[in-house]
Every structure is written in structure tokens, then in C-alpha cells.
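Feature request, filed as a ticket because there's no other form

It would be nice if the structure record came with a short human-readable summary line next to the C-alpha cells. Right now we just get the raw output. Example of a typical job, pasted below so the devs can see what we mean:
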Amino acid sequence: ALNMTQAEFAERLGVSRLTVSELLHEKRACSPEMAARLARLLKTTPESWLNMQTARDLWEVRQKTEIRKIEPLRV
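Raw output as currently delivered:
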């Protein structure tokens, strides 16, 4: 969508191509620093990137069987 290679994107962010590749393939989480870099480059906010990461992290946690086995309290 940005019409650039991962290498060019990485260069603009000031990180390695491997870092960008791992981020795009969901093998690396978006850190606050990366969120700030992405926000600056793409004219967005770091909070938007961190909110997306948090949503993904919570989705993964909710898929775990151990979490599903917990019975909610009935108050």
C-alpha cells in the first residue's frame, strides 16, 4: 500500500529489514519505540499502534484454554 520495499521502509524507520519483516509477519510485537517510529513516519499516533498491539495480545490470551477454564465469580 505504501509502494516501497521492506528495505526502504526499514531504512526510513531507522531499523533493520529483519525487524520490519518480523513485525509485518507478526513474529515481533510493536514496542513503544517502534510505535513512535511508525507514528512519525506515517503521520499517525503511537497510541494507535500500541492499541492495535494490545488488541492482538489480548485476543491471543483469550484463545488459551487455561483462561477459558476459569469460572467467573457469581456475586
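Something like this underneath would help us a lot:
The first helix runs from residue 6 to 13.
The radius of gyration is 16 Å.
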